[in-house]
Amino acid sequence: MRTIFIFLLLSVTLTSFSDDLFPGSPEVIFNENRANLDSLKIKSQNVSVIFWNVENLYDPYDDTTKLDDEFTAGGAKHWSYSKFSVKLNHVAKTLLAAGGWAAPVIVGLCEVENRYVLNKLIYETPLKPWRYKFIHHESPDLRGVDAAMLYRPSAFKVLFSRSIAIRYPFDTVSQTREILMVKGLLFGCDTLTLFINHWPSRRGGYLGSQPRRNYVASVLRRLVDSIQDKQPETNILIMGDFNDEPENESLSKILIACNDTVPFHDTTLYNLMGIRNKTHPEGTLKYRDQWSTFDQFVVSGVLMKGLSGIRAGVRNVRIFRSSFLLEDDNSYFGEKLNRTYSGPKYHGGFSDHLPVILEIHIAKP
């Protein structure tokens, strides 16, 4: 009995030092979704990358340079610091739950107002123990919402970042969100080049707004071509809220992101959500009774093959459909998104989009 008791005590003690309680010490890992830097102990594992449109993550203060008045105490939304705090904790809860209550290595976000809200998110919510850093560039978007990226510096070493300006040649007055480009080293295996997007909305109708998304797609396509012309073996990961379906013109014809893997080429782009939709047509947002998949991951063939030690394929992508992100739809049946606002009325929910998750497989030599 004494021997058994000692064994159990030792087991509990080791578990106490897991990454759950001490995220700054990743040497002992008990969840395959968390990455371990000690390649002598674990040869391969999966790490989470998440993209989420968080629906208007505004602070409650007026920025006189942006059209953010409705998200102030005196504005139409009656946005307050307490509502802002609830929103921050909702975002943190969702990211941790989507990662299996672990911490995703990379998080792409859109509809983020500024660096202030990002600092609040990573330092004053349950995300704090994971020691996230973020990348954010202020864009000329009139509403003041941008794309941003959170990352764990112990797992992802940033080598380079920049924002890609969008200037429509057919409309020199309108301004929109920029594309966030980040290049980094993932767990010392190989570099990963990421593009985080929030393409123009469908305001004004699909056909009326289509040229704007098509143009952004052409800018991104030229960027990808310039990278692959110099380094065809580059691991490319594109994520975002594209405000288009995978089969729409902007993605399938201009970005040329394929919704099938046959034929397969290293430098071809593949829309993992488009391929997945053929067998799992779930959707990431709902309008009336119609679900759409605007939130997507697109990867290069090189990343799908995993020749450099990191790999991501169709089986590695999914939509995070947690019960707390959804509620009963009494008007159109089934479920709908548990949103922060339902029209002008504060609803206290999470977002009008579901997060999408990509598991990247790390294979140590």
Helices and strands, with pairings:
Layout: H1 2-16, E1 44-57, H2 81-98, E2 106-112, H3 115-123, E3 133-136, E4 146-151, E5 156-164, E6 179-186, E7 190-198, H4 206-230, E8 236-241, H5 249-254, E9 257-258, E10 269-271, H6 272-277, E11 285-287, E12 290-292, E13 295-300, H7 301-305, E14 310-311, E15 317-319, E16 326-328, E17 335-337, E18 341-342, E19 345-346, E20 356-363
Parallel strand pairs: 1-2, 7-8, 9-10
Antiparallel strand pairs: 1-20, 2-4, 3-4, 5-6, 6-7, 8-13, 10-13, 11-12, 14-20, 15-20, 16-17, 18-19
General description of the model:
- With 365 residues, the chain is α+β, with helices and mostly antiparallel strands.
- The chain has one domain: Deoxyribonuclease I, Chain A, CATH 3.60.10.10.
- Helices cover 23% and strands 28% of the residues.
- It is built from 7 helices and 20 strands.
- The strands form 5 sheets. Strands 1, 2, 3, 4, 14, 15 and 20 form a 7-stranded mixed β-sheet that branches. Strands 5-6-7-8-13-10-9 form a 7-stranded mixed β-sheet.
- Strand 7, helix 4 and strand 8 form a beta-alpha-beta unit.
- The termini are far apart.
Q: Provide the succession of SSEs.
A: HEHEHEEEEEHEHEEHEEEHEEEEEEE
DSSP strand tally = 20
Unreliable stretches (pLDDT < 50, length at least 5) are 1-42
Per CATH, the architecture is 4-Layer Sandwich
The mean pLDDT is: 88
